[in-house]
Amino acid sequence: MRQLTYDIWDGDVGGSVRERYRVLGAMLALGDFNVTEIATLAQVGKATVRTVLRREDDYVERAGSQRTGRRGGQPVRWRLRPGARESIRAILRELEDLGAGSWLDDLSAPDSPKAAVLAAEDVLLRLAPTASNPEERGELIKLARAQVETAEGTITSQQEAGYITDHLRIARLLLDLEEEMQQSLAQPESAGVLERVWQVSRDLLLAVGQMQDTRLGDAVMRRIPDSLYATNFLISHKKPNYPEPARSYSTTELDRPSGRKVSVGTRPARLFGTDGVRGIAGRDLSAPLAVDLAIAAAQVLARPDDTATRAVAVIGRDPSSSGQFLESAIIAGLTSSGVDVIRIGVAPAAAVAFLTALHSAQLGVSLSASHSRAPYNGIKFFGREGYKLQDPVEDEIERQLISAREHGSPGAASTVSAEIERYMSHVLTSLPNSEPKALAGLRVVVDCANGAASAIAPRLLRTAGADVIAIGAYPDGQNINVGSGATDPAALMSEVKLRKADAGIAYDGDADGCIAVDHLGRLIDGDQILAALALDLAEQGKLAHRTVVMTVMANLGFRLAMQDAGIGVVETPVGDRYLADEIRSGDYSLGGTQSGRIIIADHATGPDGLLVSLYLLAIVVRSGQTLARVTGVMTRHPQVLVNVDIPDEERVLVGSSNRLISAVDQAAEGLGQRGRIVLRPSGTEPVVRVMVEDDDRGQAERLANQLADTVRELV
After folding, report:
1. Could you give the CA distance from residue 505 to residue 266 in angstroms, rounded to a whole number?
2. What is the pLDDT of residues 342-383, one digit of tens each?
């Protein structure tokens, strides 16, 4: 490579070096270009571009003229000479050392702070040469440049207002490209590329969305904030001898590779996941978004009517530090919309649901990321009667976000800590026969995950008569779910053996779920707890329709245990709100998940870890058996679960991949006759879950890891 001979033009170390850097970077990005295109992308004058072209003639050559249909001279097109790319990259690195900046940094650098912006820009520039006409090509280049300016923070509010017309045109072009790809059955990777472009452009497009353009508004609402959205899919395969539920939810079968049955179910990407809106507090889950969500929720759930009664909302949170600013933001949004707010402070999600119903409130809000650690947090809404919202209601709240406006006279907020006592009383009186000391004689270690149950659970269990040893009950705002709770029960398992306790109970961050540990320190999951409750209720004649509701992830052992007991099972998608919907629509009394989110419908509208743990321990006392014996009604079959970290915006590449569907089909050939494979994205964190069941644990592990590797290779 030749040495730089004119690093500084006209003695200007700053501007000229940066201009040269931008021009060279734009040339490198486009590969094939004319002067106008380079000037637009690099934001320099055409004279500067021509100067660089003259001085860099070692690296560029004429590629002919561009036909435009206009009279007169046609613009000359240029292209990079063979082998010029590495030389230009070397020059760019030297120019960076001279202070040129790095807005066209190496896209392969994983530590680049603008990696997402650069990736999306690169996508647009690669799309540009294939555009059907020069105008489309020019628009793509403008959008790429706008993305860089947005990332650098160089667009002022006045400039942004002036760009609205251009952005409208660019956004519509992007939608056209997206629709063309869908119509032409383009590769799923192309769809993923466009999703990344939308992500980078979301701030500009949000402004565009306020222009009341329905088509753009729908597009914006599908994608903002993108890091909170998830593409939902389910890929599954069951062997012929795998027991079928009495009823299951429907999936859309898109493909049956090799003639075998691989079911692929899809649903549109949504802001609401399986359990509310979740993300990193202060970044994804910001105060402005929380305010807007509250206003939108008030518009949907607490619309003003002709009655004189004011709308009321109940709000509670876990002890996470971020819960404080989110609580303030939610209260601001609700009260500005004319809703009175009852603030109950740190409380389990089930307490919010119960008190929402008790006060006949229009809505309830629980702030917690449940089993996730800080800095994650979440916003969960409850409707009238304390039930979680159904999909259509959540979709309406999403649509209202784009035009969220306060209405009505301001509401008032009040803190009522005594409300927790009412919830505790409800849980205690819900126990069979309402025995005042139903847990007398039991020594129990309780792990509160440093979460919402920290102050309540030990007191509740002691009131019920248990000898309680509490761990994970000292929240500091940052230690929720850290080394404790249902997601990390190692400390509980050790403590139960050390203290020679009869049982251990672990809750998650918002205490809507629980798992247990027997006297030998062995883990008891939600499936085993659900099986014990189902048989106990069936024996008392209280299991409605002699049926229990479970999710698609339920263990084969649970299904076989229910089959042996003559109890029917109904299957739902993952998510306790789907359990609740099925329980209500089918008039069932019990349902739950493997993670321990269990609904006892006679006493709760949703999962309640405190209620379930008391119920389970009461069975132990009443039966005179150990917890191990009570939950031994089912035997867990080998089930291997591998979580693969996948950014939310990449999920479309996974869920629509024919390669992955074929890999599942191939892996299924190695399963036993009662084997099963399920792949699905988590609704609460950015991972794809790969689950394989087989009578041979070693085979299940091999297949699960093999499929997990395939998922990683797709992104």
Report:
1. 36
2. 999 999 999 999 999 999 999 999 999 888 888 889 999 999
Tokens representing 127 are: 């799309």
Cβ atoms 430, 321 nearer than 8 A: no
Active site (annotated) includes residue 370: yes
**Options 16, 236, 370, 372, the catalytic residue:** 370
Encoded amino acid at 587, one letter: D
For tokens 């705002």, name the residue: 477
Structure tokens belonging to residue 471: 């761990």
β 277-280/376-382 pair status = antiparallel
pLDDT tens figures, 153-167:
444 445 444 444 444
3-state secondary structure at position 51: helix
Average pLDDT over residues 660-681: 86
Mean pLDDT across 663-678: 87
CATH code for the part of the protein at 277-416? 3.40.120.10
CB atoms within 10 A of CB 346: 22
Helix, strand and coil percent figures for the chain, each rounded to 5: 45, 20, 35
Write down the CATH number for the domain with range 230-269+637-713: 3.30.310.50
Burial of 169 (0-12, 13-18, 19+ CB in 10 A): middle
CA distance 327 to 323: 6
Please report where in the chains the tokens 């009655």 appear, as a residue.
307
CATH for 430-630 (3.10.310.10, 3.10.20.30, 3.40.120.10, 3.40.80.10) = 3.40.120.10
**Interatomic CA distance for residues 216 and 221, integer angstroms:** 9
Alpha carbon distance 34, 417 (integer Å): 69
Cα–Cα distances in angstroms (integers) from residue 325 to residues 214, 297, 329, 345, 510, in the given order: 33, 18, 6, 13, 17
**Direct distance between the N- and C-terminal alpha carbons of the chain, in angstroms, rounded to an integer:** 35
Query: CB under 8 Å to 695, separation ≥6 — which residues?
Result: 637, 638, 672, 674, 675
